Amino acid sequence: MNAFNDLSKDELIKNLWLTDEIINEIEITKREIDKKKTTLEETISSTKQEYIEMVKKNYYESEAYKAHQSYQSLIEKLDAFRGVAILLDLIVCVLLGYGLIIFNVSFLKVILFWIITPIIVYLLYQQGIKYYLVKQKPAHMPSLETVIEEAKKSLEYENISNSLIANHIRDEVMKLSQQQSQLEVLLAEKTVLPELYRMRAREVVWYLENLMADNLKEALKALVESDHREQIKEMMNEQNQEIDRLKKATETLMDQNQKLIRQVEQQRQQIEELESKKK
């Protein structure tokens, strides 16, 4: 901080406006850094999400997944056909039984045929379906969750954080950080304000420009006194609010007390009336 005793009032005002300008540039730079960091996080996050979406797309479009879907569809179709197969089994066996009756086969044997043959045919059908499904079953395929977990462990996924665009944003953040450091050094070299009051340079200038202070010491003193008055005013407002709150609470308690007194009086009168009736 430069000595300010040798500065004229105009020079002091110019210095304070310069201080305010540098501080504004620092604040703008900080906001830009925050924006760049947010952009970096969002860029990395969106790129990773796009990578996972691509993994999902490739998974669903793979031949293995299509084979599994076809196999599942086949199982569903065969399950849906089971009722039809049972019905056909029964119809054919019934017709064959009637045919045996036509060829003079004993009725008892036909009954046994009707009982046993549909069961045997259905069991053979079931075994045939199982054998067919085993033959048609595609090779094992990992779940989508497993594929995604493996993708997140891949080198390509890990390198997303170090992509060209991510590194470019980091370079911009570094340049802005260097710019901020240079501005902070410049501020320390140029300003006459103590660090405690640098963010309030405009307020200090106001006291000087409105003839409420002739030098920096008087302006800072006026600023401190103004802060003190504001604190006292705020404390008084808080006290007044607390008083109002207590007043309202007291009034509420008094109202409740009056209601209670009236209730007790009513009860006393009722007791007296009952006692008089008993007499």
Structural class assignment: mainly alpha
Annotation, overall tally of beta strands: 0
Which regions contain 5 or more consecutive residues with pLDDT less than 50?
A: none
Into which percent range does the helicity of residues fall?
over 70%
Beta fraction:
under 5%
Query: End-to-end distance, in Å?
Result: 99 Å
Labels describing this entry:
279 residues, mainly alpha, 2 domains, 84% helix, flat
Notes on the structure:
Helix 7 crosses helix 8. The chain has 2 domains: 9-197, no CATH class; 213-278. The chain is 84% helix and 0% strand. The chain contains 8 helices and no strands. It is mainly alpha-helical and 279 residues long.
Structure described in brief:
The protein is mainly α.
Helix-strand layout with pairing:
Elements: H1 9-61, H2 63-102, H3 107-136, H4 144-152, H5 155-158, H6 164-190, H7 201-209, H8 216-278
Helix pairs in contact: 1-4, 1-6, 1-7, 2-3, 7-8
